[in-house]
C-alpha cells in the first residue's frame, strides 16, 4: 500500500546550485515512483534565510504507458490503447481520487462520454459531487485546499484522455470561483455557492447558448435547403431538430468517416425526429457536394488565430466545399474559445487507439498483426485545424462573427471577468 | 465442318470472356491483355475477306464487350487500338506511306472527312498475318508497361521524401518498390473506405521495408502539409487530361493543390480513353457509395506512363497517336 510522498528540504547557507531531495518519511516506495532532483536557481539569496517546503505529490497513478509504434511526426504525443485503461493497472484508494472522478476517467478513456459539450458537462457534474463530499481539514482554508485537491483529479483525467479546450476553460472558471470565496465564509455556505456557480455555468454557457445559437442559425436555413453535416455535433443536431420543429423544409446529408463512424449516431437522432437524411462516407463528399446548399459544422475549439479545431476530416469538408463555392458555417459556443494558436494539426493533437483502424473486408483482416511489421504504422488522429479562409461564418451566442473575430471575443470576455 | 467448329469455338470463347468481364475483379492490366488476346483470336479464326469486314466484326464484338462492363474502359481501348492497327496495316498494304499520314495529321485535323472515301474493301492476302503480328507487338507492349513505369521511379523520388497515395494501385506499388531499392523515403497510404484497399497496399509496401503509415480518409488534409509528393494510380485517363479514379481522389487532389504539392499519376497508355467527363460517369454509381471520382486536369501535375512523362495538356496528342478519330464511337 502506498501513501502520499512528502518531500521537503532546507537549503543551507551560502547559496547552492542544486539540492538533492531528502525524503523525510515514507512508507513503501513503489518502483513506479521516480526520484526527482530539483535544481534551485544559483542565485539563492532569497532562500538562504527560509525553509522551503515543497510538497510534491507523487501520485500513485503511474504514467500511462504508450501503446504501439508511433508515427515519427507525432512521437511527441501520447498514444494509448483502449484495452488497457489506467484503472486496471493500479488500485486507487478513495482517499486520493474521488470515485466519481475515477468513474468519469473510465468513461472518457473508453469513449462512453464523448463530444466536447458532453465531456464538459460530465466533468462539472463530477466536480459538484466532489464539492458536496468535501470537508475542510483542520488548519486549512477552503479555497486553497480545495484547489489543491482538484489538481490530482485533473491530472488523472488527463491521463485517461487529454483534456479538451472546453474542459480546460471550465476548470479555469471553477478554480477562479473557488479562489474568490471570501475566507470568512462558512463551509456550508461556500459549498452551496460553488454548486450554484457550477449550475449557472452549465446553464448559461451550454444550455442557453445552444438556444441562442439555434435562433440565429435557423434564420440561415431556408426552405428547400440541402444541408451537409459531418460527424455528430450535439449543437448542430440541436439546431437541425429545432429548425424542423419550426416547420422549415430541408433535407440533410450526413457525412461520416472511419474509424469512429460518429455520423451514425447523428443519423439516428435526426431520423428519429423525422428529418429526411442521406448518409455518405467522407470519400464521397466531392460527389455529393454539387447538391448541397450549406454546410454546418461543429467545433471542438476556436483558436485565437481564427483556426477552427474540430474532428479530423472537418478541414477536408471545408476545403471541398470551398472548391464548390458552398457556404460553410461553424456553430460554436463562446466557452470553447481558446487562447492557444495553432497552424497545423501536428504540434498539438490527440492520437487515438491505432487498433481502431483494423477492419475485416471480404473475410481478410489485412492489418491484423501490424505490430510485427517493423516499418508499418497506423495513425488515428482525433482532431484537425481548419484555416479561417475556408469558413464563411461562425455562429455564437453573441451573434454571427467571422473567424478572425475570435481574439476580440476573448478580449471582451477577459475584460468582463 | 472445320470452319463451323472454329466459329462455335470462337463464339464460346467470346461468351466466356463476356461472363468473366461481368464478374469483374480482375486488374485492368490483365483485362487489357486478355482483350488483346481475344481480338487476335477473332482475327485468326473469324471469317472475313477484307479489312472492312474484320473491322465490322471487331466493332460488333467490341460493343458487346463494353456493354458487359461499362466501367472497365480498357476493353474499349484495346478494341480501338486493334482497329487502328488494322487501318495502318491496310494502308501499308495499299502502299501509301505512314510518314505522310503522320505529317498530314495536323492538316487532317483541319480538313476532316478526307478519309471517308476509304471503305477498306480491297482484299490483301498478307493482311491477316500482318495484323496478327502487330497485335503480338501490342501484347508485348502490354506486358512490359508496369516495368517501364517502375523504371522511371528514380527520376522522380529523392531521399527522405514523404509520399502520399490512396487505395491500391499495382502500378504505384511497383513504382514505389523500385525506388525503394535505392532510396529511403516514407509513404502515407489513405485507406480509401469502405473497401479499404489501402490496407493491402500498406502491408505490401511495408513488407518490402518501406516506412509506411496508414491514415483514415478523414485525415488526408490534416497531414497533407508534410507531404512532398502525391503519387496515385487511376482507373481511366480521359480525353481532356482528367481522371476517373477511385473515390476520394478528388479530395486528395484538392488538398494537394491547396498545399501546392505536385500530384503525379502513374498510368499505362492502355488506360487512355477517348471519353470525356460526363459520359458514363453515372453508370458506376449507386445512390450513396460512388465508386469513382472525376479529377479535372488542372489539379494534375504529371502523367507517368510506359512511354515517359507528360503534362495533362499533351494527352490529346497521345490519344491521336493511339486511336483513330472515327473509332472513338465504337
Automatic annotation (TrEMBL), chain A:
<keyword id="KW-0648">Protein biosynthesis</keyword>
<dbReference type="InterPro" id="IPR037171">
    <property type="entry name" value="NagB/RpiA_transferase-like"/>
</dbReference>
<dbReference type="InterPro" id="IPR042529">
    <property type="entry name" value="IF_2B-like_C"/>
</dbReference>
<dbReference type="GO" id="GO:0048513">
    <property type="term" value="P:animal organ development"/>
</dbReference>
<dbReference type="GO" id="GO:0003743">
    <property type="term" value="F:translation initiation factor activity"/>
</dbReference>
<dbReference type="GO" id="GO:0007417">
    <property type="term" value="P:central nervous system development"/>
</dbReference>
<dbReference type="GO" id="GO:0005085">
    <property type="term" value="F:guanyl-nucleotide exchange factor activity"/>
</dbReference>
<comment type="function">
    <text>Acts as a component of the translation initiation factor 2B (eIF2B) complex, which catalyzes the exchange of GDP for GTP on eukaryotic initiation factor 2 (eIF2) gamma subunit. Its guanine nucleotide exchange factor activity is repressed when bound to eIF2 complex phosphorylated on the alpha subunit, thereby limiting the amount of methionyl-initiator methionine tRNA available to the ribosome and consequently global translation is repressed.</text>
</comment>
<dbReference type="GO" id="GO:0005851">
    <property type="term" value="C:eukaryotic translation initiation factor 2B complex"/>
</dbReference>
<comment type="similarity">
    <text>Belongs to the eIF-2B alpha/beta/delta subunits family.</text>
</comment>
<comment type="subunit">
    <text>Component of the translation initiation factor 2B (eIF2B) complex which is a heterodecamer of two sets of five different subunits: alpha, beta, gamma, delta and epsilon. Subunits alpha, beta and delta comprise a regulatory subcomplex and subunits epsilon and gamma comprise a catalytic subcomplex. Within the complex, the hexameric regulatory complex resides at the center, with the two heterodimeric catalytic subcomplexes bound on opposite sides.</text>
</comment>
<keyword id="KW-0963">Cytoplasm</keyword>
<keyword id="KW-0396">Initiation factor</keyword>
<protein>
    <recommendedName>
        <fullName>Translation initiation factor eIF2B subunit delta</fullName>
    </recommendedName>
</protein>
<dbReference type="Pfam" id="PF01008">
    <property type="entry name" value="IF-2B"/>
</dbReference>
<dbReference type="InterPro" id="IPR000649">
    <property type="entry name" value="IF-2B-related"/>
</dbReference>
<dbReference type="GO" id="GO:0005829">
    <property type="term" value="C:cytosol"/>
</dbReference>
Automatic annotation (TrEMBL), chain B:
<comment type="subunit">
    <text>Component of the translation initiation factor 2B (eIF2B) complex which is a heterodecamer of two sets of five different subunits: alpha, beta, gamma, delta and epsilon. Subunits alpha, beta and delta comprise a regulatory subcomplex and subunits epsilon and gamma comprise a catalytic subcomplex. Within the complex, the hexameric regulatory complex resides at the center, with the two heterodimeric catalytic subcomplexes bound on opposite sides.</text>
</comment>
<comment type="similarity">
    <text>Belongs to the eIF-2B alpha/beta/delta subunits family.</text>
</comment>
<dbReference type="InterPro" id="IPR042529">
    <property type="entry name" value="IF_2B-like_C"/>
</dbReference>
<dbReference type="InterPro" id="IPR037171">
    <property type="entry name" value="NagB/RpiA_transferase-like"/>
</dbReference>
<dbReference type="GO" id="GO:0005851">
    <property type="term" value="C:eukaryotic translation initiation factor 2B complex"/>
</dbReference>
<dbReference type="GO" id="GO:0005085">
    <property type="term" value="F:guanyl-nucleotide exchange factor activity"/>
</dbReference>
<keyword id="KW-0963">Cytoplasm</keyword>
<keyword id="KW-0396">Initiation factor</keyword>
<dbReference type="InterPro" id="IPR000649">
    <property type="entry name" value="IF-2B-related"/>
</dbReference>
<dbReference type="GO" id="GO:0005829">
    <property type="term" value="C:cytosol"/>
</dbReference>
<dbReference type="Pfam" id="PF01008">
    <property type="entry name" value="IF-2B"/>
</dbReference>
<feature type="region of interest" description="Disordered">
    <location>
        <begin position="93"/>
        <end position="114"/>
    </location>
</feature>
<comment type="function">
    <text>Acts as a component of the translation initiation factor 2B (eIF2B) complex, which catalyzes the exchange of GDP for GTP on eukaryotic initiation factor 2 (eIF2) gamma subunit. Its guanine nucleotide exchange factor activity is repressed when bound to eIF2 complex phosphorylated on the alpha subunit, thereby limiting the amount of methionyl-initiator methionine tRNA available to the ribosome and consequently global translation is repressed.</text>
</comment>
<keyword id="KW-0648">Protein biosynthesis</keyword>
<protein>
    <recommendedName>
        <fullName>Translation initiation factor eIF2B subunit beta</fullName>
    </recommendedName>
</protein>
<dbReference type="GO" id="GO:0003743">
    <property type="term" value="F:translation initiation factor activity"/>
</dbReference>
<dbReference type="InterPro" id="IPR051855">
    <property type="entry name" value="eIF2B_beta_subunit"/>
</dbReference>
